[in-house]
Amino acid sequence: KVKAEETQAIAADAERDLEEALPALDAAIKALDSLDKNDIAEIRVFSKPPELVQTVMEAVAILLNQKTDWASAKVML
């Protein structure tokens, strides 16, 4: 009975976290959907991208098991 209660508490906590995160996920998906090829092309021409762009592309490269340098990131775009 104790294990069942602990499991239920963990599930409820996870559900709350999910409900909190879903609006941010939906907003991120809408933002991605608003991008077009011109937006991506604009980023490619940077010889040194803004720090936030570099950070995001490094994260994507890590997730895709790719090199994290800017030249490799531009190829991924």
UniProtKB/TrEMBL annotation:
PANTHER family noted in UniProt: DYNEIN HEAVY CHAIN 6, AXONEMAL-LIKE (PTHR22878:SF68), DYNEIN HEAVY CHAIN 6, AXONEMAL-LIKE-RELATED (PTHR22878)
Q: Which GO terms describe its biological process?
A: microtubule-based movement
Q: Which GO terms describe its cellular component?
A: dynein complex
Which InterPro entries is this protein grouped with? DHC, Dynein_HC_stalk
- Give the gene name: ORF21065
GO molecular function annotations of the record? dynein intermediate chain binding; dynein light intermediate chain binding
The organism's taxonomy opens as:
Eukaryota, Metazoa, Spiralia, Lophotrochozoa, Mollusca
Q: What is this protein called?
A: Dynein heavy chain coiled coil stalk domain-containing protein
To which species is this protein native?
Answer: Arion vulgaris
- Residue ranges of the Dynein heavy chain coiled coil stalk domain? 8-75
